[in-house]
């Protein structure tokens, strides 16, 4: 995700210094006009705005603390974490930085590599309004940004997005399974209900994958499970019971335990088939 | 639903004889050029094609048997039941009629009164291909028809549609509840995730109702519960466990038990709030 997003920023005229743990991953960006740096610390030391796009919360914490990035940031820098991290991590990073005079936004995205290349990402932003306005020209080069609340809210919105996706995958899988088991043609049933109240991007995209039994990821079941876990943790912190989230989490957990971790998340259908002795 | 559908058929040039238990309901159709009949039996006795649009399976059974409609149909008549009935009722009606030389289709619709007026209903059709082709010019005046399998399959497809709608309502309600409890602005979260992988007609329509707390039906929770019950029964007949369907059924049951039977089905949010002590 980082590379196409950086490309969009270069094309929009921003001066970029890039760093990646694996230096070959930045080679193409140097040709596009980015500067490079020998360390994360060196990359951020003169920056007005720092953007991170890492694999999870601990990776961001490690970079900030062990990697010396927090110490290297000059006061007044804006730190924008576009990684998908749990809300409690996003809040912890924001407090840690704010104590050093650094503004922070959590701004995870949805839309995948295609959205990153097109500059059509949905960007869910948590943090204060001033920082959001400061980041607006950057976000405009990457997609459609919406401020959804204080620090941690962007991360929470991403989880809300992921839980709707996961539960809707379960809904479509159960419906197609019932159609087939009851003697209807599941492909025809899906075609018949497209465009009505049951319509969704999941019915369109993941429904097509289920019918084709194309479970090459896409988004892996193990990533969906990680998001369902984070959502459950956020619900627990907020004192909430969310029964459909819990049930869908349990199904994704069973899918990964039964060898489906690396399959696309639409393979929840396979777990429902196994549960019903249809495998 | 029956009246706007009959209007579409008259406009398309079909000669119509109409009957309703409450005669005043057919008055406007007579002005449009429909004929009327003093009984259901009298309405069908000369018909080539008979269409029923009734409230449930028992109403169709009663009309066919006690109402004398089955006895009055001439052999070779095509019987099209567009009511929403359980698959086992649709199959029973089809066998009962087939034994008398009558072809039958189960052809429930989705799209509501608006879809009926516009002729844009989704029509899910179970029955044999010959009967489907015979009904095609009629369906074309009413919406988009898809044959999904043998007798009972149309009814099953309608249940598949309804279970996706019900579970997706639960997904959106849980996500908005988590967003709010976690300190984000749920309206902004919904706006941020619109158009991405979480997008659905439910996020658009029912999500807007939840945020506005507008639970005037629309489609009543009690009707959604009836559909979830029928889907569970169909799953049971097919030997299937469908955990998200079961969980969502239980939530709609609790909603109706707690006074929400007459609210819109998007009021599942209210039941989730109650479950979490937020009412």
Describe, in plain words, how this protein is organized in 3D:
With 279 residues, the first copy, chain A, is mainly alpha-helical. Chain A folds into 2 domains: 2-150, 3-Layer(aba) Sandwich (Rossmann fold), CATH 3.40.50.720; 156-275, N-(1-d-carboxylethyl)-l-norvaline Dehydrogenase, domain 2. Chain A contains 14 helices and 8 strands. Chain A has helices at residues 2-11, 27-32, 40-44, 57-65, 69-72, 87-98, 112-118, 129-142, 153-181, 186-193, 201-212, 221-237, 243-260, 268-275, and strands at 17-18, 35-36, 49-52, 78-81, 103-106, 109-110, 121-126, 143-149. In chain A, the strands form 3 sheets. Chain A has a 3-stranded parallel sheet, sandwiched between helices. The first copy, chain A, has a 3-stranded mixed sheet with strand order 6-7-8. The first copy, chain A, has a two-stranded parallel ribbon with strand order 1-2. In chain A, α1 (2-11) packs parallel to α7 (112-118) and α9 (153-181) packs across α11 (201-212). The longest helix of chain A has 29 residues, at 153-181. The mean pLDDT of chain A is 96. Chains A and B meet through β7, β8, α9, α10 and α11 of A and β7, β8, α9, α10 and α11 of B.
């Amino acid at each position: 995700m980082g590379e196409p997003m950086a490309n969009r920023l270069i094309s929009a005229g921003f001066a970029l210094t890039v760093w990646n743990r694996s230096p070959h991953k930045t080679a193409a960006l140097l040709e596009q006009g980015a500067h490079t740096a020998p360390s994360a610390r060196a990359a951020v030391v003169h920056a007005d705005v720092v953007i991170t796009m890492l694999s999870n919360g601990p990776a961001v914490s490690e970079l900030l603390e062990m990697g010396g990035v927090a110490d290297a940031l000059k006061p007044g820098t804006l730190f924008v974490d576009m990684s998908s991290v749990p809300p409690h991590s996003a809040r912890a990073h924001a407090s840690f930085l704010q104590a050093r005079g650094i503004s922070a936004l959590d701004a995870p995205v949805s839309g995948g590599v295609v959205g990153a290349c097109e500059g059509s990402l949905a960007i869910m932003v948590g943090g204060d309004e001033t920082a959001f306005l400061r980041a607006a020209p950057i976000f405009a080069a990457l997609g459609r940004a919406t401020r959804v609340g204080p620090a941690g809210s962007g991360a929470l919105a991403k989880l809300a997005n992921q839980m709707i996706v996961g539960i809707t995958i379960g809904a479509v899988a159960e419906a197609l399974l019932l159609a087939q088991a009851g003697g209807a043609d599941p492909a025809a049933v899906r075609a018949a209900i497209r465009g009505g109240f049951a319509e969704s991007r999941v019915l369109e995209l993941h429904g097509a994958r289920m019918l084709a039994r194309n479970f090459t990821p896409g988004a892996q079941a193990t990533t969906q499970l990680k998001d369902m876990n984070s959502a459950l943790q956020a619900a627990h912190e907020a004192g909430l019971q969310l029964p459909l989230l819990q049930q869908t989490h349990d199904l994704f957990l069973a899918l990964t335990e039964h060898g489906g971790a690396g399959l696309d998340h639409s393979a929840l259908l396979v777990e429902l088939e196994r549960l019903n002795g249809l495998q």
